[in-house]
Amino acid sequence: MGVREIPRRIWLGLSLILCASAVLYSWNLGSGGFSDYYATAARSMGLSWRAFAFGAFDPNATITLDKLAGFLIPQALSVRVFGFSAWALGLPQVIEGLVTIAAVFYLVARWIGPRAGLVGACAMAFTPLLVSMFAHPMEDSMLTMFTVLAVVAWQRGMELGSTRWLVIAGVMVGLGFQAKMLQSWLVLPAMVVVFLLAASGSRRHRLGQIAVFGLTTVAVSVSWMTAISLVPASSRPYIDGTSNNNIFSMVFGYNGIDHFLRGAVPGALSAAPPAGGSVRTSSMLIKLIGHTPLKLFFPEYATQIGWLFPLAAAGIVLGILELRRARGAGTPIAPLGIAVLFSTAFLLTLAVVLGLMSLPHTTYLASMALPLAVLCAVGVTLLWRAFRRREPRWKYALPITVAVQCAWVVDLLSNFPAFANWMTPPILVIGALATVLLFRSARGRTNARAMGHAINPFVAIAALGLALLGPIVWSFSTLSLPFAGSPNDAYAGPRVTSLFNPPVTSPALYGSGLSSNRARPKTATVEDAGYDYAFARARRLTYVLATDSWRSDAPLIMDDARRTLAIGGFTSKAPSLTTSRIEDLIEQGQLRYLLLTGPSAKNIGATPPDLQFRNWAMAHCTVVPEKDYAPKRLSSTSIPDVLFACSPSGL
After folding, report:
1. What is the pLDDT of residue 639?
2. Which alpha helices (H) appear in 188-308, and where do they start and end?
3. Where are the domains of the chain?
4. Element (H, E) at 406
5. Paired strand residues for 644
6. Could you give phi then psi for residue 161, rounded to 5 degrees?
């Protein structure tokens, strides 16, 4: 369907959805916080083109992030244009969210029709997890946008048999790789299988097109990695997440296979445990479920992504039946059938992979929103079609789905008696009434034929409204900061006491998802004072000071310190600097001060590199008394940071 063929009222509906989404995403833009680790890198990339090119954590580009930094490019450019602030970091994600919703509408409208396009766009826009995600600066926003754009290009390639559109789809998947690495490739099995099954042309021609698509995807995916790896190690930052300074080990090991098999890729460091910890239960059954797709039905995940599971399931069942009917008649697979095949295959791939792995963050589930939105649109279309036609086998599918959908929503709401108890009675009453009326109309009793045609559309719309009530309420709850999630883990609405991914510590301790020392004013102020002390005495040195924790370095860089030297990377385990290299820098007059941190709330625990540098500093450098640089009211033995002054004569 061409753009000009879409009725004006459909455009109005899409505009309302986009406006509501823009409000939701931007409401807390200036106060929603940001993840200090990534925000520091965005700040560094905005200050230094060298840091921008390498995706470095610090302005001097001495160490990279522990993942590809493509998702930070829009944030870094925004910071360079508007200055460093929470809203400047979050603005690109708002734009990415609106592009995603518009693209989903276009995708579904071409497959099923403009009304179904509105259903798909609405389901996508009011997925609670996405509302929180697009309102915060995080990598999954760009991944979701490029995945949808890749499917749109792939769809055009299917329709036209065009290799050019498949190349564009491959480029989009490759750009998604820059945002979230291997997770972007999870869409490929569905794309490849459905294209080979349903595209026009000979099998040989289709295989050739898929080969071009695959080569493009891989080439774009590894382009940035390859360019960085070609730069001599002495001329580029150290690659975080590795012990061998190899970016392929970081991407495919530390951020990839190691999520399933630790130590499988040589040179990849073991990732730090998630902030909330792993499964905290002694039940073997729960531990087993935690590594299966069944965990997606638990309320901590279902309230974020799964309110419409029954409706999507109806789309799968009726869609497969429609495909069987078309196959029996010998007709080619229609666009709606392609939508069913692709979305079902993509959803199953995601469910298996994400079900098997331990989820560090709920945000990993964001990729499921696209296939679920498409299947919901399929479900609404086919349920209404079967009901209106009164097909003998499936005329009751609509009332049954309404009943199951309402029961599922009520079951999820039962986990939040203090938050959503007002929703349960109307859903039960209106859901039961809608189910009865639709059953009676399907059976053709009373004056259903005379009255049914008049009331059925309203009953169906009311039923759809009930299905969307849960995700809409959870989505709009993000207007209140306590229910808006955090930049470290998108999460809308009240949290469940999670079995698999317990929430982080009290927000009063760490702020709105922040994880550096910014939320510990006493410690951070002492560090600022230490930096000022070192800065006044190291004006001509290359580096003012070196720190052994990014949590100490982050507040300094975000406060415009440009001459710090980070040691150890995100996990404090990366051998980015050795004691011998520190000695060389001191001997060459490039560095004099070290700010080292012992086991504390800033670190998960003391690691061998931590102790190595601390022991070396104790043996070769002089401790600067805290009273010499910190205000007396902050001076305390409880502060774990120690400032060391080193000089060539002390080595």
Report:
1. 55
2. 188-198, 203-221, 223-230, 247-249, 284-289, 299-305
3. 517-650
4. helix 397-413
5. 594, 623
6. 65, 30
